[in-house]
Automatic annotation (TrEMBL):
Positions with a binding annotation for substrate: 106, 144
GO cellular component: beta-galactosidase complex
Name of the protein: Beta-galactosidase
Single GO biological process annotation from the record: galactose metabolic process
Annotated positions binding Zn(2+): 110, 150, 152
Similarity comment: family membership: Belongs to the glycosyl hydrolase 42 family.
Reactions that this protein is recorded to catalyse: Hydrolysis of terminal non-reducing beta-D-galactose residues in beta-D-galactosides
Annotated SUPFAM superfamilies: (Trans)glycosidases (SSF51445), Class I glutamine amidotransferase-like (SSF52317)
EC number: 3.2.1.23
Molecular-function annotations in GO: beta-galactosidase activity; metal ion binding
Pfam families linked to this entry: Glyco_hydro_42, Glyco_hydro_42C, Glyco_hydro_42M
InterPro entries linked: Beta_galactosidase_C, Beta_galactosidase_Trimer, Class_I_gatase-like, GH, Glyco_hydro_42, Glyco_hydro_42_N, Glyco_hydro_b
Organism: Paractinoplanes toevensis
Keyword field: Glycosidase, Hydrolase, Metal-binding, Zinc
Length: 661
């Protein structure tokens, strides 16, 4: 492939074949070169347990190949057929309240069901045997947007097996789960039940009597769905040893620890559906998170809407230029494919009003289609200048699903603290400062980074504390915040002062903490700047650290809210409260300035500057034009016009400049 892939989900089985001619005519006009097919075709390809029929899928694949399109072929197993639920009712899920579901919706199969695992694996194997070797197939797409939960007997048995593998003995399990509390000591494996509304929970999945049990069940559910992926990938690999196999992730999706899947994916792909049309920082963070799953390798943007979604109460339209802007933003952060859901709008069911490249009328003169075609032409002009390029970064942000889960199922100090929101705020400050940043797991190699930010690192596992100390010892800066260093990997509190194993690096001790309602503010004074702290106010005792900012109110007025500690040749920063945006930007800015990491366009309203390989992307997310000076000699990648250092650059609203060195 000599260019970024362009196309998306195509479901021609949903309409008459005579429509396909129009589809391909319009694909040509839009420069569509890659189609994802077969995502929900299980009922079509297996109409009964002992009957397989690939006639329609054969025609879909043959037509795409004949038209010169690359194919991402899905296994179709994300929703089981109605006959399967009727014949094997145990395959459907049992919900949190203990109700056995009947056939309907999607994500409706228990991942631990032996029947589901057997039949889904058989389907993947048959597809592999049938289509392996087809040169048009450039990737396999297993399942679709894995997710959901089940609490049935199959799940319970699978959970107990998983626990045996993890703990080995009941003594070790009882110690990890702290079961001397409330007379919970287990004396046999089959006494253990999945934590649900019928067992340990009240008021929903995040309110549990035993956080350790629920934490392990969250880990187990993630691993069980990974086992389904592994089943199908292994079946494909029997016939096709080399074509990349992926599944589409959903960004910072709480139920699944995507870092646990990294070793099994040949490439990361994800579906980008931001919560609104106003926060490019949300997408920048999530792109960086997805890129970090496999150590900075490029990913595929598997789905985005060209216009509107259809899954929310209110579905705002992408304004003119946004489709192009956000697509190039994904490329700037590491995407090697720009794909849409969907290529042609379906006529019925819940996604009939979801945006599509081709609408119900099949017109080429709509604004959306014109923008898709214009972007396709730009991608052709860009060629391979960006393809495969890495995004260099000297700043890392740690993201940890275990900390996310443990923090948000904890009884105290505050259920108002949301892990992803805090991490995103620190990422946003780095993004706004124009510094390259990787969002990485806690197991990542930290040696490439001068700065490591670890907001709300609630759980500290293994040798992480020592590895963070090494970053500071060699001259780097490590920052962490309130509610960090609280628990070990079993979710049990450390028998030491808060912040536990991070205490030496941070040079502080936290004896008490105060939690208040969201509208309670305690001003935080930096001397030349007053900001606000909310939600949690830790009362910090410096143990070598220097106060940088202090609380103004309450009995702890004058005590540190932000500290800096000299450690080796570097520093450890501790932020004891949920600072407002100005406070986070002040702290992160000082850390970046210590290492000279602010970008040349930092502070320009609305302008994002990102670097990938030899290309600098200037993306104007604002409603006003932006004028800056070129910071290096370059060439406009899309026009070929040379640019000299110091030349004025005008970036129109929602416009993009690509400058190649």
């Amino acid at each position: 492939m000599t260019k970024l892939r362009y196309g998306g989900d195509y479901n021609p089985e949903q309409w008459p074949e005579k429509v396909w001619d129009d589809d391909y005519r319009l694909f040509d006009a839009a420069r569509i070169d890659t189609l994802t097919v077969g995502v929900f075709t299980w009922a079509l390809t297996q109409p009964a347990e002992d009957t397989y029929d690939f006639a329609v899928l054969d025609r879909i694949v043959e037509r795409a190949a004949a038209e010169g399109r690359a194919i991402c072929l899905a296994t179709g197993t994300a929703a089981h057929p109605a006959w399967l639920a009727r014949k094997h009712p145990e395959v459907t899920r049992v919900d949190f309240e203990g109700r056995r579901h009947r056939f309907g919706q999607r994500h409706n199969s228990c991942p631990s069901s032996p029947v589901f695992r057997r039949l889904s694996t058989e389907m993947a194997g048959r597809l592999g045997r049938r289509y392996a070797g087809n040169p048009a197939i450039v990737a396999w797409h297993v399942g679709n947007e894995y997710g959901g939960a089940c609490y049935c007997d199959h799940r319970a048995a699978g959970f107990r097996h998983w626990l045996r593998d993890r703990y080995g003995t009941l003594d070790r399990l009882n110690d990890a789960w702290y079961t001397t509390f409330w007379s919970h000591t287990f004396t046999a494996w089959d006494e253990i039940e999945p934590p649900s509304a019928l067992t340990e929970h009240w008021r929903g999945p995040d309110h549990t009597a035993f956080q350790g049990i629920t934490l392990d069940y969250l880990r187990f559910m993630s691993d069980a769905m990974l086992a389904n992926f592994r089943d199908e990938k292994a079946a494909i690999r029997e016939s096709d040893p080399g074509t990349p196999v992926t599944t589409n992730f959903m960004g910072a999706y709480r139920p699944i620890d995507y870092h646990r899947w990294a070793a099994d994916l040949d490439l990361v792909s994800w579906d980008c559906y931001p919560p609104d049309d106003e926060h490019p920082d949300w997408m920048a963070f999530t792109h960086d998170l997805m890129r970090g799953i496999r150590g900075g390798q490029p990913f595929w943007l598997m789905e985005q809407t060209p216009s509107v979604t259809a899954c929310r109460d209110v579905n705002p339209l992408k304004r003119p230029g946004i489709l192009r802007l956000w697509s190039w933003q994904a490329v700037a952060h590491g995407a090697d494919a720009v794909l849409f859901f969907q290529m042609r709008a379906g006529r019925g069911a819940s996604e009939k009003y979801h945006g599509a490249v081709i609408g119900h009328a099949g017109r080429a003169d709509t604004r959306v289609f014109r923008e898709v075609a214009e972007l396709g032409a730009e991608l052709e002009r860009a060629g391979d200048a960006v393809l495969g390029g890495r995004t260099a970064a000297r700043v890392a942000i740690l993201f940890d699903w275990d900390s996310w889960w443990a923090l948000e199922i904890s009884d105290g100090p505050s259920r108002l603290v949301r892990y992803q929101e805090v991490v995103r705020e620190y990422h946003r400050a780095v993004w706004a400062a124009g510094a390259g940043v990787d969002v990485v797991p806690v197991t990542a190699d930290l040696s490439p980074y001068d700065v490591v930010l670890a907001p709300v690192l609630h759980m500290v596992k293994g040798e992480l504390a020592g590895r963070l100390e090494e970053v500071a010892r060699r001259g780097g800066t490590v920052l962490t915040t309130f509610l960090s260093g609280r628990v070990d990997e079993d979710d049990n509190a450390f028998r030491t002062d808060v912040p536990g194993p991070l205490g030496d690096l941070m040079g502080v001790r936290v004896d008490e903490w105060d939690a208040r309602a969201a509208d309670v503010v305690n001003p935080v004074d930096f001397g030349d700047l007053q900001t606000a702290g909310r939600l949690v106010f830790e009362i910090v005792v410096p143990c070598g650290a220097e106060p940088i900012a202090t609380y103004r109110d309450d009995f702890y007025a004058g005590t540190p809210a932000v500290t800096r500690n000299a450690f080796g040749a570097g520093e450890g920063w501790y932020v004891a409260t949920a600072l407002d945006r100005a406070g986070v930007e002040r702290v992160v800015g000082r850390v970046l300035d210590r290492h000279g990491l602010r970008g040349p366009y930092a502070g320009v309203p609305g302008l994002e500057a990102a670097h990938r390989g030899r290309v600098t992307f200037l993306l104007n997310h604002g409603a006003e034009p932006v004028s800056v000076a070129a910071h290096a000699d370059a060439r406009n990648l899309l026009t070929g016009v040379p640019v000299r250092e110091g030349d004025p650059l005008l970036v129109a609203p929602r416009d993009v400049l690509l400058l190649v060195r």
